[in-house]
Every structure is written in structure tokens, then in C-alpha cells.
Protein: O-acetyl-ADP-ribose deacetylase
Amino acid sequence: MATTHYMNGRLKVFCGDITTLEVDAIVNAANSSLMGGGGVDGAIHRAAGGQLKAACRELRRRDWPDGLPAGEVALTEGFALSARYVIHTVGPVYARGEDRSVTLAACYRNALALARRQRMHTLAFPAISTGVYGYPFEAAAEVVLEVMAGELAEGDIEVGLCFFSADDARAFDAVAQRLGHDSTA
Ligand code: ADP
Structure:
């Protein structure tokens, strides 16, 4: 499936396996234990190798003894990944009747801020919270687009949204189109 570009080429939307990307950092949709889990978290831990778990254990001990709260970010190396770093974040668990979009936005915003502090230029995100955590895909896409429209005005960083399924990539493009974001192939 082709890549779609938005925001002067600074936002790329494509379908793929985030563990294979050669970028400064990939973002992990972790859980607060940071000890790995299912979905993209498990895939990242498998591809990065056991050193990632050791690094996460050290993060827990040193910085987050009670676990990483939703919306926060933590940095490790990428170890066996092609990505140099992993930015771990914890998305909100979707709750009907409670708006957790601010927390979801914080995941993206804090990851971008950390990447900038580290002088990174390329960053890739999975669809945080839209798997096991149950966040409706289109509502999440609206949050992502709003954050990116604000954050990517400065041209110092390129962001990839790496969707595991072609259906998700198409659904994202449909939301972007509905909200009036110009795209180029
Ligand atoms: P969460 O717990 O935050 O909902 P999940 O890992 O359950 O996180 O799902 C988040 C998204 O990541 C889902 O759309 C899932 O299909 C996707 N995903 C799973 N494995 C990969 C992968 N290797 N690369 C990119 N995305 C992935």
C-alpha cells in the first residue's frame, strides 16, 4: 500500500511493521509495567531482544517505581532494532462516558517533545490505544491529526504513522480527508 503524505510531507501514513523501520525512534504503545505485553509492545520486545527488557527494568527501578503513568514517556535504546531508540508511552484505556483524549494527545505530544530534546529527526508511531486498549480508531485518528497539525508546523522532525493493517491506513486517510487535511501521494 502506498504512503500518503500530509503537512508538507512532515507526516507520512503507511502500512507496515513498526519493528522494521530505520528511524531515530519508534514509539511503543507499552503498558505501565514497561515489562512487555501483547500487540505492538510484544513485537517490539521480541525484535529488540532481551536487552530491552533489562533497560525497561532499570527504568522502573530508577525513574518509575510505580509504573509509567498513561500519557507519560520514557526512553531506551533500540538494541537489536533498526531504530536507534524506543520511546515508550502508555496510552489511555478507552472508557465509554469518559473523555480520555487529552491523555492520548499527551502520548503523542510528549513523545515528540522527548524526540526534539534528543535532537531526533525521524519518529514513527503505532496506533496507540486502538488495539487491546479499545480506543475507537476514528476518534483516535482525530486526536493524532490535531496534535500533528500543531506540532509539525516547525519543519525539524518527520513523523511516520505506521499502521499494522491496510484498513487502518485507509481509515486514517478517510478521517484526514474529512477534516480537510491536504494529502500528496
Ligand atoms: P494498545 O494496548 O495501546 O491498544 P496494541 O498493541 O494492542 O496497543 O495495539 C495498538 C496498535 O498496534 C493496533 O492497531 C495493532 O494492530 C498495532 N500493531 C500490532 N503489532 C504491530 C507492529 N508490529 N507494527 C505496527 N503496529 C502494530
Notes: The mean pLDDT is 97. Helices lie at 39-48, 50-62, 101-117, 137-151, 166-178. DSSP finds five helices and eight strands in the chain. Residues 3 and 14 are 5 Å apart (CA to CA).
